Amino acid sequence: MNYEFSLRKSALVSITVSCVLISVLLFGAGLLVGSQWLSSSAAAEDTVAKNEEPNVPQEPVLNDEKPQTPKATAAPKITVPAAAPAAGPAAPSAPAAVQATASAALPPVATANSEIKIIQEAATEAANDANAATEPEFVTVQIGLFLDEREADRLLKDVERKGYAPSFFSGRDAEARQWYAVRIGAYSDKQQAANAAANFTKQEKLKAVVRPLGSL
User: Fold this and answer.
1) Position 37 in a domain
2) Measured between alpha carbons, how far is residue 75 from residues 70, 131, 183 in Å?
3) Looking only at Cα atoms, what is the longest distance across the chain?
4) What values do phi and psi take at 80, rounded to 5?
5) What is the number of helices (H) and of strands (E) in the chain?
6) Does pLDDT of 97 surpass 70?
7) Which residues does residue 167 pair with via DSSP β-bridges, in sequence order?
């Protein structure tokens, strides 16, 4: 038994249009599902990143610049000329114009007392500068810096339980914010302090920095 099928032109056009419409609908549905999936993935990644971000306080604005005191220059040593001998023949007097020029060129003669006073002041200033240059600058290892005093106290007790001997320091920065710092040790050698900070970071996995002993 044989069957013969024949499609008219209108039926063929209808089938073609239907296939095109179905393809367009499927493509649009795929785009919609894909965009929703991408947006949900991005939102999930942002949420994970926010949850993993540590609650680190902002760094303080430090006032490390020390006012420079201008050094007073020592006054030059003035030698008092010796008095001319009284004996001997009188030298011939120079012309009046030459005597006036020589008098204007010579500096005023200082007394012996003023010379001694100037020398003593210069020696005192030199001694003060030498003491300031030889005085060591003490530093410490800072292992925590917080705006909340309770967090600083919590870290201090935790470090004490591990066998360290921490100290507590508080101070204000340039923006008048009160900071609380936990520190370990005091060193006169900055390199020795830097080595101690590196060892502490390696052992305890906590950030440690070298800071001046009496300031933030």
Assistant:
1) yes
2) 15, 21, 46
3) 169
4) -80, 120
5) 5, 4
6) no
7) 183
Query: Given the DSSP bridges, would you call strands 178-187 and 139-146 parallel, antiparallel or unpaired?
Result: antiparallel
Find all residues with CB under 8 Å of 166, minimum gap 6, and list them. 143, 156, 159, 160, 182, 183, 184
Which among 213, 216, 215 has a CA at the least distance from the CA of 137? 213
* Domain interval for residue 33: 14-50
More confident residue, 144 or 101: 144
Whether 79 is covered by a domain: the verdict is no
Are 173 and 63 within 8 A, CB to CB?
yes
* 3 state SS of 106: coil
Task: Tell me, yes or no, whether 1 lies in a domain.
Answer: no
Rg (CA), the chain: 44
Phi, psi of 158 (to 5 degrees): -65, -40
- Which structure tokens are listed for 20? 């095109």
Confidence of residue 14 (pLDDT cuts 50, 70, 90): confident
